[in-house]
Specification:
This protein is of the alpha/beta class. It is built from nine helices and eight strands. Helices cover 38% and strands 13% of the residues. The protein starts with 7 loop residues before the first strand and ends with a helix.
């Protein structure tokens, strides 16, 4: 295995390691169906999956977090999602090969997501990722979620990796903001949900990939 300029690599979960949008969108559409409203097309909802309940409820109902109906809708969404975490979700093609290569090279890798531990732990367990990862940090593990750097710094500390020698991969601009604030090099995962207004090439990431397999050339440059 070629030498790497990095001591560790960390990944966002939804839209980066795993395509979880099918089950997230279903949880949101169940809210609409329960209110005798037509479900939204998957293609319309998918880009909002990186923002979780907040983004999907906003897309489905056109309301933000300040609306009085948001909290009860969010809580119902969480129940829907918890009951069907891994029905149609899957690891992105190419990720298994990438992680196997990292494991073979004995390079620590971890997961840093804004998903609550309530969902992160069972989902990564079901996907066979939890015990392979050197660290798994959720949105409620530290005092601040991304784009604050605290979750990334915590993940690096658990993995015993210098954040200044680490790489962070994510499919949302807040991932890039968090990675830079933590002193990490950043990769925009353009194959993910990319639900924010700015296109991935404008996020200011150090690298951009259109396929997970492209990460190998970044981690292990020739």
């Amino acid at each position: 295995m070629a030498h790497s300029p990095f001591a560790g690599i960390f990944f966002d979960l939804d839209g980066t390691l795993a395509d979880t949008a099918p089950d997230l969108v279903n949880a949101a559409n169940l809210l609409l169906i329960a209110r005798q409203l037509p479900p939204k097309p998957y293609e319309e909802m998918r880009p909002h999956s990186s923002a979780g309940a907040r983004g999907l409820i906003q897309c489905a109902f056109g309301i933000d977090t300040k609306h009085p109906d948001f909290i009860p809708l969010r809580d119902e969404f969480f129940i829907n999602y918890e009951q069907a975490l891994l029905v149609h979700s899957s690891i992105f093609e190419g990720i298994h090969d990438l992680l196997n290569t990292l494991d073979d090279a004995k390079m620590p890798w971890g997961i840093v997501t804004n998903k609550s531990e309530r969902f992160t732990h069972p989902l990564t367990e079901l996907m066979g990722l939890r015990h392979r990862a050197a660290s798994t940090v959720s949105g409620d593990t530290t005092a601040h979620p991304k784009p604050h750097p605290a979750p990334l710094l915590h993940a690096a500390e658990i993995a015993q990796v210098d954040p200044n020698k680490s790489l962070y991969v994510g499919d949302d601009i807040r991932d890039i903001v968090a990675g830079k604030a933590a002193g990490m090099k950043t990769v925009a995962a353009a194959y993910g949900y990319c639900g924010c207004a700015e296109p991935p090439q404008d996020w200011g990431a150090d690298f951009l990939v259109n396929d997970p397999r492209e990460l190998l050339a970044i981690v292990f440059p020739k």
